[in-house]
Design a protein that fits this description.
The complex is a heterodimer of chains A (about 400) and B (about 550). Chain A is α/β, with parallel strands linked by helices and about 400 residues long. Chain A is about 45% helix and about 15% strand. Among the domains of chain B are: about 120 residues, Rossmann fold; about 150 residues, Collagenase (Catalytic Domain), CATH 3.40.390. The chains are: A alpha/beta (about 400), B alpha/beta (about 550).
């Protein structure tokens, strides 16, 4: 017994190694982007411009709106101080209106909170949350997470009201990994002391990059004098510059390493940080990932074998099968019915087999109705009781009021 | 409390009386005036006051603080949950039932044949989770029932007398027809044993695809490698992993969206309802026991694709869908959407050097696209939609993860078994994730509903595990188990939102505890000191 076990061992090892290796190299099938701005108020115009330009970029590279979660805490386009109403620009040449006419903001204004962000990542949401506002990823999804706002050592402020800590973020990612909610993550953050935000991450397969080290500020790139405020941050500006000029479409072969190599202190005015150690395969594997693996929507399409004839014939056969099976089923039903009819009589048997058939027909057409019937009556009753209670209160109130009035008179 | 508030008045009256009686007032006109000595009743009252403060703090304040700040964590059966995740709780067994239909073979001969074939199969060292079980239906009624697609029998072997050993797989029904020479059925002969070996190998090859998929599922699950099957070649893995990547995650209901996109103003209507009813509904009906489907359709004119070139290469196809402008994610209901797009335009697909061109392509986990050349009229009749809908139907089957070999009923029954295995493994791994999570994040709250969901999930897992005899029930139980496990894991109130470092806690509590705690503590210390002093004096006096 032991000897056979020993013989099995190398087999076991190789099989497990092979399967692991396969699992690692498995491709991803969908791309998601989570773009989060966290600051309110007009003077933080640039943060929203940062987020919107990232939104434009991932959309340009093919990620559909249903797979982009955009969180905008304020509405700069409709701010009364905006000299160009309805638009947001990230460059003083004002060439591209980032707001445009085709934009889907998933979380807006006061919906952008730490709680909602963590709920989004861990998908702990109620049934009422529409699918478009959820991160419906699986173990084959690559996610690009971009955050910008005002931060400090190991925290990022949300709307000047609360903050997310580096630990909270790390725990959220760990919960995602535990539930196999991602394949790989590119985490990018542009805020002061940004690199501290990813220092606490501990889940595998994350590439992280930030704009500035501990005790360093992250600076804005330039201001637009007509808008009156800074319009974009340096780090985001140079990321976008690289993406615009080097990654023109999905066929680009530029890697994550190329992007990270383009960062320099002269350009960004702070030390951009990169973290590879969480990634399986280390720096080498992380650097060799294509940018389109995170910013684009790569779909590995399968073209049908050109001769449609085979498909056609197969399908025809399929149709025949189904017809035959249906016949078989009806025959069987009839046989059963006939067996039952031995006692009851044939006429009735025919009657019973007919409705069965018509049932199957009608099943295909669903009629409109309430989505859920649970506790329908209970809900109605509660509503009626509440209404009756209110009326009773009102009656009581008016009754109590009227004698007192009479007395005062 | 009322007694406490009365105290000051009573003490003042007592002090005034004692100070009147004090004889030493005239002696100390230059020295600081000393307070009058306390009577034992004062001392006792003061210690009562201090004790009552402490009692309130200890017996009312502390419990309230504890009760209001403690995080509720329901008891989870962590050990059992981990057992499920590690595959220890139930060795997932997915038996395939094969019935032998041999009308012209005597009962004892058939039995010995079944016995020998079963022995050969068992000796073939397949992994224990996947076993082929042979049986003989006893009555003709049973035989008829075994052909019903919803029955538990996966395959019927129909034995026929003939010249030589040969097998044919029935193209439409789950029947394997075997012809055998008449002498090979006599038990004990070498011909008989060769027949049983032959049957065993045939059966094995028939179910080899299913077996490979099962092995793949087990290999990519959370079950540690010692419990996994060993026979597993890399080639199979690669092709399977591609296929599994393509298929959608299991859901009871899928939403099918049929979209007609045209490059110009026409055609602007299509007979999609009729086409779906004719060409797709039969298959959807057959899938009824595994999935439900809801359908919606849309037409959009002047739709520009993501790629404008006349001949589309494989790279172009992946960006053909204009994700930014085409409304393809209706997010109707809670079900995942499968998209089927018919695009009417003049573009063609160029694949390498082949002269023949294809019309359609499949996008993994998303749906498929069919290019249709513009019809002469403003409207697309159902006949023209036949080919697209048939293609979509076969794409749908492959998106659902249906195996490729065998007749359709066999593929579907295999799909049922694969899906229940898949769900079982998923639910188990969810339970394991939840168990690990609750250990890893001690500050996360676990409401009772989570424990409830876990209990339900494990109950149904056990049922699914036990009901291996009936595959349909197994699927249902596995589905509920997976649903409950997911609900438990994604419980809304389990948001580990705020991590407080210890410094934060001190910063919160200090302003509160400082002003309250210091007098309280000092009062207690003074009292104890005074009590000790009195005791010492008493001893000295004694």
């Amino acid at each position: 017994m032991k000897l056979s076990d020993l013989l099995h061992l190398p087999l076991l090892l190789t099989s497990s190694i092979l399967s692991n290796a396969n699992y690692v190299s498995a491709e991803h099938t969908s791309n998601w982007a989570v773009l989060v701005g966290t600051s309110r108020f007009w003077f933080n115009y640039r943060h929203l411009a940062n987020v919107l330009s990232m939104y434009r970029t991932v959309k340009r590279l093919g990620i559909p709106d249903s797979q982009i979660i955009l969180m905008l805490p304020d509405d700069m386009a409709c701010n009364p101080r905006n000299a160009f109403p309805g638009t947001v620009y990230s460059n003083s040449d004002r060439a591209v209106d980032l707001y445009g006419d085709n934009i889907e903001v998933d979380y807006r204004g006061y919906e952008v909170t730490v709680e909602n962000f963590i709920r989004l990542l861990t998908d702990r949401v109620g049934d009422e949350m529409p699918r478009s506002k959820r991160l419906l990823t699986d173990d084959r999804s690559n996610i690009f997470v971009y955050m910008t706002g005002h931060g400090g050592n190991e925290f990022l402020k949300f709307q000047d009201a609360e903050e997310i800590g580096a630990f909270d973020l790390a725990d959220a990612f760990e919960q995602m990994w535990e539930k196999r909610r991602y394949h790989e993550i590119l985490f990018m953050i542009d805020t002061c002391q940004a690199n501290t935000m990813y220092s606490k991450l501990y889940s595998p397969n994350i590439i992280a990059t930030g704009s500035s080290e501990l005790d360093q500020s992250s600076y804005s790139h330039h201001a637009d004098n007509d808008v009156g405020v800074a319009v974009i941050d340096r780090y985001t500006y140079y990321n976008l510059e690289f993406l615009e000029s080097q990654v023109q479409d999905l066929s680009s072969k530029k890697t994550v390493g190329d992007l990270f190599d383009s960062y320099s202190y002269e350009k960004i005015h702070s030390h951009a940080g990169v973290r590879y150690d969480l990634f399986r395969g280390g720096a080498e594997a992380a650097r060799s990932r294509l940018l389109t693996d995170f910013f684009g929507n790569i779909q590995n399409v399968e073209i049908d074998s050109a001769n449609n004839v085979t498909v056609d014939s197969e399908m025809l056969a399929l149709g025949e099968t189904i017809a035959r099976l249906r016949e078989l089923a009806t025959e069987e039903e009839r046989a059963e019915a006939e067996a039952a009819a031995a006692a009851a009589g044939k006429v009735e048997a025919n009657k019973t087999s007919r409705p069965a058939q018509s049932d199957r027909r009608t099943k295909n057409f669903a009629t409109a109705g309430p989505l859920t019937d649970d506790n329908w009556w209970a809900k109605k009753l509660t509503g009626a009781a509440a209404l009756a209670g209110c009326t009773a209160l009102w009656v009581l109130g008016s009754y109590l009021e009227s004698p007192s009035k009479e007395k005062t008179k | 409390m009322s007694s406490l508030s009365e105290d000051p008045t009573s003490t003042t009256t007592i002090t005034t009386t004692t100070s009147d009686n004090n004889p030493s007032t005239d002696n100390n006109t230059k020295r600081r005036k000393q307070p009058p000595p306390e009577t034992p009743s004062h001392i006792r009252r003061r210690s009562f006051i201090i004790a009552s403060f402490w009692a309130i703090v200890l017996f009312l304040g502390l419990p309230i603080w504890w009760k209001t700040t403690t995080i509720y964590r329901a008891d989870l059966p962590l050990g059992e949950m981990m057992d499920w995740a590690d595959g220890k709780a139930c060795s997932p067994e997915f038996p395939i039932r094969v019935a032998i239909d041999a009308p012209d073979v005597q009962a004892n001969e058939a039995e010995s044949l079944v016995r020998e074939t079963q022995q050969t199969l068992d000796a073939m060292k397949d992994f224990p989770g996947h076993r082929i079980r042979l049986e003989i239906p006893e009555t003709p009624m049973d035989r008829a029932a075994s052909l019903n697609p919803n029955s538990n029998t996966a395959l019927v072997i129909r034995l026929k007398q003939g010249d030589a050993i040969a097998t044919t797989l029935h193209p439409h029904l789950p029947i394997l027809e075997v012809t055998y020479p008449s002498d090979s059925i006599v038990p004990g002969t070498s011909a008989a044993s060769s027949l049983s070996t032959y049957l065993a190998t045939e059966l094995r090859s028939t179910f080899s695809e299913e077996q490979a998929i099962m092995s793949y599922l087990l290999a990519t699950s959370s079950i540690p490698s010692e419990r996994r099957p060993q026979d597993f070649s890399q080639q199979i893995t690669e092709s399977l992993s591609k296929r599994m990547t393509r298929s959608l995650k299991y859901s009871r209901t899928y939403h099918l969206t049929f979209s007609l996109f045209t490059s110009g103003p026409s055609p602007n209507s299509w007979e999609i309802e009729e086409a779906v009813r004719q060409y797709m509904d039969p298959v959807l009906n057959m899938l009824n026991s595994i999935h439900n489907f809801t359908i919606d359709t849309q037409v959009q004119l002047y739709a520009t694709p993501g790629v404008q070139s006349q001949v589309l290469t494989k790279e172009d196809l992946s960006s053909f869908i204009n994700a930014a402008e085409w409304p393809l994610s209706p997010s109707i209901g809670g079900a995942p959407t499968v998209n089927f797009v018919v695009y009417i335009g003049n573009q063609t697909i160029g694949v390498g050097s082949e002269s023949e061109t294809s019309q359609s392509w499949l996008i993994p986990q998303w749906g498929s696209v069919y290019l249709l050349s513009p019809p002469p009229t403003d409207y697309v009749p159902a006949e023209l939609l036949k080919q697209p809908i048939l293609t979509f139907t076969s794409h749908l089957l492959s998106l659902l993860g249906t195996p490729q070999s065998g007749s359709l009923p066999m593929r579907l029954s295999t799909l049922t078994r694969i899906r229940s295995a898949d769900l079982l493994l998923r639910a188990s791994s969810s339970l394991g994730s939840l168990a690990r999570l609750s250990l890893a994040l001690p500050s996360i709250s676990i409401p009772p509903s989570v424990a409830d969901g876990v209990a339900k999930s494990m109950h149904h897992l056990e049922l699914a595990c036990a009901s291996s005899t009936s595959s349909n029930n197994g699927l249902e139980h596995a589905r509920i188990a997976e649903e409950e496990a997911e609900r438990a894991f994604f419980e809304k109130s389990m948001v580990g939102q705020l991590y407080f470092p210890d410094e934060h806690k001190i910063a919160v509590y200090l302003p509160l505890l400082g002003p309250v705690g210091v007098p309280l503590l000092m009062g207690l210390l003074n009292e104890i000191r005074a009590w000790k002093k009195r005791r010492a004096e008493k001893q000295k006096a004694a």
